Structure formats: C-alpha cells, structure tokens
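chain below, 425 aa
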Amino acid sequence: MKRIFHSLLALFVFIVVMQALFNYFSKGYSLEYTFFNDTNEFEIKEVYTANVKNEKDNYYFEIKAGENVFSFQVFDNFLKKKKIIEDIRYYKDSEYECIYPIFIDDTIIFDVTCMHKGVLYEVSQNETNDKVKEFVKNLNNYDYTRWQSKEDKTKEFGHIKAYTGNLEKNHYIGISSYKGTYTINTQNNLIGFVKDVPIFKKDVYKYPLSTYVGQYYVVADYDSVQVFNNFNTVDLTTNKIDKIFSNHQISYDSYILGVYENSIYLYDQMYKKEYEIDVDAKTILEVGNETTKIKVLENGVWNRYSPSEIKNNDKTFINYPTTSIKNVTKIEMGNVLSGYSYFLEENKKSEYKYKVYRSNIQNPEQKTYLFEIDSFDDMYFVDDYIYYRNGKSIYSYSIKSGKKLILTNSELTFNTYIKFGAYIK
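prediction:
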C-alpha cells in the first residue's frame, strides 16, 4: 500500500511540475467568456501573450457591452492567471457608454473609459456630461486624485521647475542645459530631485550634435574647436559622465541622421562620412562614405544614398515607421501582439497643432483620444508611457496615471537646441 501511495504521490508531483513548466513556457492563450454583473451581460475576449520573440508579455481584452466593443491592453503581471476581470462597472445613455473594469484582487489599472461618437476617452482627462460625472462619483473604489496632476510640490533649479509629486519611481528624466544636462528623478531625492551635471567648461548655446538614447545623454565635445574626436555621455540613472572616442576627426558641420536601437547615426557633411555611435558598446564606427554611400533607415528598411542625395538634412529618420494620409500622421510603436499605433490629426480649432489618438495594435480601428501637442518631434515613447513637450512644459501620459506635468523650463520657448529624454529602469 505504501508503495502505491508513494507512486501516486510521485505521479501527482510530476503532473503538477509539468503543468507549471507548461504554463511558464507557454506562449499564452485566447479565450472568450460571458461576464454578468447585477444588471448587465458582457461578452469578453481575453488574449494573453507570453514568451513570444520581440513581444512584451501582455493581456489584451475586448469587452462587448450592447453594440459597442471596448478594447484595451495591459502589461501588468497577473502570474499567468485566466479570467482576470473581477468586475465591470457600466454606464450608458443616448450619447455616452462607459466601462470601469476591476481586475482580480481589486486591482485598478486605468480610468473610467467612455465611448462618444465612436472614439474612446478617459473621464478624468476630458469634459463629459453631468450624468457620467454622477456615475463616476458613485463608484465606491474610484480615486479621482490618482489621475490628476499633482502640482503642489515643486523643486526649482535654475530655469527648471520640477513637479516632484508627479515623478514616477524608476523613471529617469533628462533635459539638456548650456553646460550639460539636468537629471530629474526620485533617486535624486537627497539632493532635491534635480541634479545639474556639467560637461563643458563654458556655456554652449547651440549643440545640435546631441540626443538622448536609452539611459544616456550623448553630446559632442563642444570644448574642442572646428573638429572633435569624442562624444560625452551622461548616465541618467547614476549621473556618471563618460566619453566615447573615435579614431577619426569629425567636423561640426555634421548632423544626426537618426537613432536606431542604441546607436546614433551621424553624417559629417565636410568629410562625407557617416558614423555609428553605439552608446552601449561605447564605439564610434565609420559605416558610410562616398564609396559605400550613406545608410538611412526608412520605414524599417536600410537604404543607401550618395552624399549628393542627402543634402539639406532631408534624409533624417526616426526608429519607428510613420505614414501620412491627408491630415493624419500614423506612428507605429510595437509589433504584432503588443504595442500601439499613434495618430496625430491636424487640429485647426485649438492652440495646439495636433490631436493625439492611440489604438491597440490588435485593434487598429478603435482610437482613444489622449491629448493635444505642437509637434510629433517632441514625443518620447518609453514602454507604455509617453513623455512630450508643449511650449515650455514637459508632460507624461500613461493609461495607469493619466496626464501629468513633469517640469517647466522657460528656455524651451525660444531655444530649439534644448532636448529632453526619459528612461524607465
């Protein structure tokens, strides 16, 4: 009998271990189910993606309430559990339809989301009618302050005013200065959240050969004259200054073609050479010249052009695909099963040039309104956060926290050489 018992126990343990390994290494699942609350019935499609190359683990949902479908994606870790929606609060009238999903363990991930005229929007970020406001007011576990910008706590340093109540843990912000860069993060708390990291001996007012790549601020050696052979780097997470050296002399008559992954591509117009500055490997390599031509990334494909074909900075690139149709520019940020498409629609009825919308990669037709912006050149995508500039202000946006004011810098209104970046550790 003991032998049988031990054999059964061993078999049970084996099955449990194999099931755990299967769940851990599986590529996810897709299931559909019906959810009921007190008065409504919802059809839910739940897709979990995991362990897929080039994809970020995520849950994707489509919730059908009546005729409309609400789609959204979350990147939180629910330990690969299934049917993770615990409750759905729901409102509908002749103009608006709103849902407020509550996940297992009473987890709240995003704001009340409403559909109006076919577009989704978050209640706390936009005006709505009195009935929707009353619905939100009566939600027991709704924390309105979570979605509001906290602007009562600030730290000033030179031209910078940082709104420290809006800084996210493990988020590292950089904004360039005339002598180097400021770093802004909660780790700098002991020195007041804002740290001035000087690089140059004297003030430099024009520094076009600079950018933020991942956790680094990278800028040419503007202490040199006419030509230089190194770039300075500042690690936003440690404030450490370092250098990347080149065996070549590079002229200041250069410009940045673009950034791809962890490398900056720079074209030297004087010497007609292209360089790749790899901030991780700390190398500067010649990757293009008059013979091999100059490589440029265009919608995911590297093409080569002769120096005569890339005059006047007309071949600069960004490291994500964009398309433009009439008055709408589409930006792709993600792959097939994770990420978003962003739509910048020209806006003639506001002080800002564009209205920004976002759709999930898995449901590109359904758009969520986010905010307004002056230029898509001033948007910085970090995971599912967006850092962006309007006028003298830098903001962040996330589905988890809404729109937040991060800092203001009066110099931003007139100095186009000032750049900013963000990194999540």
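Confidence is low (pLDDT under 50) at residues 14-22. The radius of gyration is 25 Å.
thats it, cya
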